[in-house]
What we know:
Layout: H1 4-9, H2 13-25, H3 31-60, H4 68-84, H5 87-95, H6 103-116, H7 122-158
Helix pairs in contact: 3-4, 4-6, 6-7
Amino acid sequence: xxxxxxxxxxxxxxxxxxxxxxxxxxxxxxxxxxxxxxxxxxxxxxxxxxxxxxxxxxxxxxxxxxxxxxxxxxxxxxxxxxxxxxxxxxxxxxxxxxxxxxxxxxxxxxxxxxxxxxxxxxxxxxxxxxxxxxxxxxxxxxxxxxxxxxxxxxxxxxxx
Length: 160
């Protein structure tokens, strides 16, 4: 019995048989457990962020509007330190997507790439490879911000 992927790739009969056997032997994924772990981990990261925001507001005199930037900076710093120590990767193995969604996941991806390629040199190794992974995120964010800025400007001109 051939799978859809096997039909598309035009596998040989032996390869198709192997694919079928591999599918039967593959252990089921604990979907609910993975979702709960991701929810808990992402929630804890967000709670830490909210606590940081409250700390900046109450102890350092920031407003709700201005406390966001230092909160994000501290979260990024914590993620980079934990990635450098190898702790964030272990947490990500346990939590899955829960650690990838917040800003800390982006910081982790940048830091991991920088650490992995540091032996190739500062510019071509660390700098060049660090942005291979994060480049699409940066470009999308920049383009989206530009488009939203133009829409905001047009709505201001229209009096909306």
